Amino acid sequence: MGWARTLLLGDIGNRLDIADTEADIDRVCQELRSSRNVDASQDAAIQQLQKENEQLELCIAALVTTLERKSVLTHDEVQNFVKLIDRPN
User: Which domain holds residue 40?
Assistant: First the structure.
């Protein structure tokens, strides 16, 4: 409709076309910002999960070491446990 507005309304039509284009640009910018915000929040959630996973791995290692030291688990049982955990999916 841009050319028709310009033809029929002159400068006013031209200004309306410019306003529409500016609105389109603003909309695209908002969508990009929103997408970046989602990505940032997902990145933060992934970092938090990685941190928690590391803490759980440390807890398991400490627990297994303690159980072996107290002779609740044998060295072979610990090795089997480690192989079970470390096997590829």
Answer: 2-86
